[in-house]
Design a protein that fits this description.
The protein is α/β, with parallel strands linked by helices. Helix content is about 45%, strand content about 15%. Strands 1, 2, 3, 4, 5, 6, 7, 8 and 9 form a nine-stranded mixed beta sheet that branches. The radius of gyration is 20 Å and the shape is globular.
Length: about 375
C-alpha cells in the first residue's frame, strides 16, 4: 500500500499544472462575474489532503479493471495546452486509484464519447455493463431530485457550489437515496461551468430583454420554466441540432457554459453573450453500486476519496478553460455583457419563484425547502453574505 505517497508522475504534473493555472485564473479571470475564483486555501493541492486511515486494507485477489466513460475530448497533453474538465477529472481519478491500490484496481478511460452518449453510458452504468461515468444533463432523468440544484441564480459563487457538493450532509443523504433508488453510487461533483445566455436579437441586461426571443433549451422542464418566467420562448432542441437551428433562425438564442459554446462553435452564429451565470452545471461521477459494494472496504474508501479529489481537478480545469482559454475564443466574435449585482438580483427575483413552484409540485415542498435551507447553511459556514 502506498499511503500518502500516491502521487505518480502524471498526478504531479497534472496537479502542478492545474494549481498554477488556478492561481492564474484568480489573478487574470475576466470572464465570470457569476463565479468568483476560490480563495487559495480552498484550492489546495491534493497532495496535502489528509487521506483517511483505511478500515480494511484487503485488496482484490486478482487485478480488477474498471471502465470509465466520459464525453470530453482527450487531446491533452499531446494535442492541447489544457485538459478539458472531464478529462482532467478522469486522469486524476485513474492515477489516484491505481496508485493507492498498488495496481490491484486499474481504471481504463474511454473519453470523447467513444462508447456512446452520456445518457447511453449512464444507462450502461445502471445496468452494470459500464462501471463509472462522468457527465452532465441526464442524471435527473434517472433520479428526479437530482435536478433540484438547477434552480436559477442559486449559488452565489464557485466556493459555495463546490463546498456544498463536497461537504453538505443534506446532499450526501440525497445521494444515498439516489443509490438506493437507481443502483448508481455518487463519487463526486465537478463542474461543467456556469450557464450564460447568447442570442441574435438584442443585448440582454434585464429579464424583460428575453421577451419574444426563442431560446433553445435542454429537454428539461426546469429550463423551460426559467425562460418562460422572463418572457422568452423555450424550444427543446438536441445538442447536435443546435448550431443549424441557430444558423437558420429556428431559434434566436441558447444558454450554455462558455466551454460548451466554444465546443459547438456557437459564437459563429450568435451576436450577444450575457455572462449572467444563471445555473452552475455539473460534471458528476457515478459508479455502478453493485460493483462498488463488491469491493473491499479499503478500496471503496479509495474510490470515494479519488472521486472527491478528481472533482477538484475538474473544477480547476473548468475555470481555466471557461474563464481564460475558451472565453477569449468566443468573446472575439460576440458582444459580451457582464450584468451588475443589481441586475442579477432582478433575474433571480423573476425566475426563481417559477422554478421553485414547479419543483415543489414535482418533489414536494419539504424537499425543496430542505435543500434551500442547506444551501443557506453552507453560505453561512463559508461567511458569504448576499
Amino acid at each position: 500500500m502506498q499511503g500518502k505517497k500516491w502521487l505518480g508522475k502524471l498526478s504531479i504534473s497534472l496537479l502542478v499544472v492545474l494549481s498554477l493555472l488556478a492561481v492564474s485564473c484568480a489573478k487574470e479571470e475576466p470572464a465570470q462575474a457569476a463565479a468568483p475564483a476560490a480563495p487559495a486555501e480552498s484550492q489546495q493541492a491534493a497532495s496535502s489532503e489528509a487521506i483517511p486511515d483505511m478500515i480494511d486494507m484487503t485488496m482484490p485477489s486478482s487485478t480488477v479493471t474498471l471502465r470509465l466513460a466520459y464525453d470530453d475530448p482527450t487531446l491533452w497533453p499531446k494535442q492541447a495546452n489544457v485538459p478539458d474538465p472531464e478529462h482532467a477529472q478522469a486522469l486524476l481519478f485513474k492515477d489516484y486509484v491505481e496508485s493507492q491500490t498498488g495496481g490491484a484496481v486499474k481504471i481504463d478511460l474511454y473519453g470523447a464519447g467513444q462508447l456512446g452518449t452520456y445518457r447511453e453510458t449512464l444507462e450502461m452504468v445502471q445496468q452494470g455493463s459500464m462501471d463509472i461515468n462522468i457527465g452532465t444533463g441526464s442524471l435527473g432523468s434517472f433520479f428526479d431530485p437530482f435536478q433540484i440544484f438547477t434552480i436559477p441564480y442559486l449559488f452565489s459563487s464557485d466556493d459555495i457550489a463546490v463546498g456544498y457538493f463536497e461537504r453538505s450532509e443534506w446532499w450526501a443523504d440525497l445521494m444515498d437515496q439516489m443509490e438506493d433508488e437507481t443502483g448508481m453510487k455518487y463519487l463526486g461533483m465537478g463542474q461543467n461551468g456556469w450557464r450564460n445566455f447568447t442570442n441574435n436579437v438584442r443585448e440582454i441586461r434585464k429579464p424583460e430583454d428575453l421577451k419574444g426571443i426563442k431560446f433553445r433549451v435542454m429537454q428539461s422542464p426546469v429550463y423551460v420554466k426559467m425562460i418562460e418566467s422572463m418572457g422568452g420562448s423555450a424550444v427543446p432542441i438536441a445538442w447536435n441540432e443546435l448550431y443549424t437551428a441557430l444558423q437558420t433562425g429556428v431559434v434566436d438564442g441558447e444558454e450554455n457554459p462558455i466551454s460548451s459554446i466554444a465546443l459547438g462553435k456557437l459564437q459563429e452564429v450568435q451576436k450577444y453573450l450575457t455572462m449572467d451565470g444563471h445555473v452552475w452545471s455539473e460534471n458528476v461521477m457515478v459508479m455502478n453500486a453493485a460493483k462498488f459494494n463488491d469491493m473491499p472496504v479499503g478500496v471503496q474508501q479509495i474510490l470515494v476519496q479519488g472521486g472527491m479529489l478528481a472533482a477538484r481537478a475538474n473544477n480547476v480545469a473548468e475555470r481555466m478553460v471557461s474563464n481564460i482559454v475558451k472565453f477569449e475564443e468566443v468573446a472575439k466574435q460576440m458582444q459580451v455583457y457582464f450584468p451588475t449585482a443589481g441586475e442579477k438580483a432582478e433575474f433571480r427575483k423573476v425566475s426563481q419563484p417559477a422554478v421553485i413552484e414547479y419543483l415543489e409540485g414535482e418533489l414536494g415542498e419539504d424537499m425543496v425547502n430542505g435543500f434551500l435551507t442547506s444551501v443557506q447553511q453552507m453560505e453561512a459556514e463559508l461567511g458569504w453574505r448576499r
